[in-house]
Design brief:
Family: Belongs to the NAD(P)-dependent epimerase/dehydratase family.
Strand content: 15-25%
CATH superfamily: NAD(P)-binding Rossmann-like Domain
Shape: globular
Distance between the termini: 82 Å
Strand order of the largest sheet: 3-2-1-4-5-6-11
Helix content: 40-55%
Structural class: alpha/beta
Order of helices and strands: HEHEHEHEHHEHEEHEEEHEEHEEHH
GO molecular function, one term: UDP-glucose 4-epimerase activity
CATH architecture: 3-Layer(aba) Sandwich
Bound molecules: nicotinamide-adenine-dinucleotide
Largest sheet: 7 strands, parallel
CATH topology: Rossmann fold
CATH class: Alpha Beta
Cofactor: NAD(+)
Subunit structure: Homodimer.
Radius of gyration: 22 Å
Number of helices: 12
Enzyme class: isomerase
Number of domains: 1
């Protein structure tokens, strides 16, 4: 009798701890694999920097991709597709459907949804120049916030309620603690309209999820994306003076600009210059696929925010040194005063993405510099040089 009890408790333990989780895992895996092969993803702002790199990963994983972009910040020679997307097709050997559409144009957006059976939207389209957003805030609110609200409405009208949104570490403002976790307060210290526009859109998306439980939203809070695809065919191509450090360094290295201005050398950081969490663009792109898989899993509900960063902070001078080593040439720079709105240090706690998305950044600072340099050398004037 006792041995029978023993045996049945073994069976119970086996069932409880092995068979049920295995069944659950299989169901999850089957759903995710099915979604991968059969899903169509609409990518807004897909001819931009982050979008184009993410599309490469989507195509590599057999997703069908539809892109819409109004080309406000991406180059086209006037042909049927922006240059970045032609290069994406060259890298992957796959085709993407492209629409020259503005997300604030409700009727045009609606047509895209009517033309395709879309399963989820990856929403990159936004204006992103912090300084410009201070000068023309209404343009930023209209484009980033108004455009996102219109997109959400059109999605709902067409029964598409899955969204991965490009948010930013700027929603955390000046960090109250480091490394920054997803539970860090948001919105409080946003110093510019660009950062606020990201915060407002996050809040709108949370409200939409509260109002309708069918919605699933993942908010990806990027830290500092840098680098380029390893082929050197696509990369960051800022128009005018770069706002971000890495493209600026690369343009100095290639001789397009005289010298780098380092804003602030008296921050409370090891060398006095600002510290940021730089993340390779390919790692960031893969993070989007992991987010999509999580969103498509049967147990995902409502909304969730994830930090995409490496968890390591590098100073401006660390980046200059690393780039100089990779490019094998000195990078001319000068120290100038602090820039308004800049903060001393900002780096992520990326452990939630590791736990729940099964994602970690694997590329280091050397990879970031090498791939940026490869892209810059092959395309000294960006996409226009082709
Ligand atoms: N690159 C970064 O450092 C960074 C950091 C955090 C968050 N983000 C966010 O990630 C997203 C992508 O950034 P990116 O670096 O690829 O920028 P990007 O400017 O290279 O790409 C954005 C694309 O959106 C398009 N676009 C803008 N407004 C549009 C509109 N109304 N309708 C249709 N298309 C429109 C632009 O033409 C551009 O091709 C943005 O939402 C940005 O705010 C970027």
């Amino acid at each position: 009798m006792i041995s029978l009890l023993y045996k049945s408790s073994y069976v119970f333990v086996l069932f409880y701890y092995a068979v049920i989780p295995l069944g659950y895992l299989t169901k999850w895996w089957v759903t995710v694999e099915k979604m991968k092969g059969n899903s169509t993803i609409l990518v807004t702002g897909g001819s931009g920097y982050v979008g184009s790199h993410t599309i490469v990963e989507l195509l590599k994983n057999n997703y069908t991709v539809i892109v819409l972009d109004n080309l406000v910040n991406s180059y086209s020679d006037g042909g049927c597709k922006p240059e970045a997307l032609k290069r994406v097709e060259e890298i992957t050997g796959e085709t993407v459907t492209f629409y020259d559409v503005d997300i604030t144009d409700r009727a045009a957006l609606d047509k895209v949804f009517k033309n395709h059976k879309i399963d989820a939207v990856m929403h990159f389209a936004a204006l992103k120049a912090v300084g410009e957003s201070v000068r023309i805030p209404l343009k930023y609110y209209q484009n980033n916030v108004g455009g996102s609200a219109i997109l959400l409405e059109v999605m709902a009208c067409n029964g598409v309620k899955n969204m991965v949104f490009s948010s930013s570490a700027t929603v955390y403002g000046d960090p109250q603690f480091l490394p920054i976790t997803e539970s860090h307060p948001t919105g409080q210290g946003c110093t510019n309209p660009y950062g606020k526009s990201k915060y407002f859109v996050e809040e709108i998306m949370k409200d939409v999820c509260t109002a309708d439980p069918d919605w699933k939203v993942i908010l990806l809070r990027y830290f500092n994306p840098v680098g380029a695809h390893e082929s050197g065919l696509i990369g960051e191509d800022p128009s005018g003076i770069p706002n971000n450090l890495m493209p600026y360094i690369a343009q100095v290295a290639v001789g397009r600009r005289d010298k780098l201005q380092v804003f602030g050398s008296d921050y409370p950081t090891p060398d006095g210059t600002g510290v940021r969490d730089y993340i390779h663009i390919t790692d960031l792109a893969i993070g989007h696929l992991k987010a999509l898989e999580r969103m498509f899993s049967p147990n995902f509900k409502s909304w969730k925010a994830y930090n995409l960063g490496t968890g390591h902070g590098y100073s401006v001078l660390d980046m200059v040194k690393a780039f100089s080593e990779v490019a094998d040439r000195p990078i001319n720079y000068e120290m100038v005063g602090r820039r308004e709105g800049d903060i001393a240090s900002c780096y992520a706690d990326a452990s939630l993405a590791k736990q729940e998305l099964n994602w970690v950044a694997t590329r280091d600072i050397k990879d970031m510099c090498r791939d940026t340099w490869n892209w810059q050398k092959k395309n000294p004037k960006g996409f226009k040089s082709s």
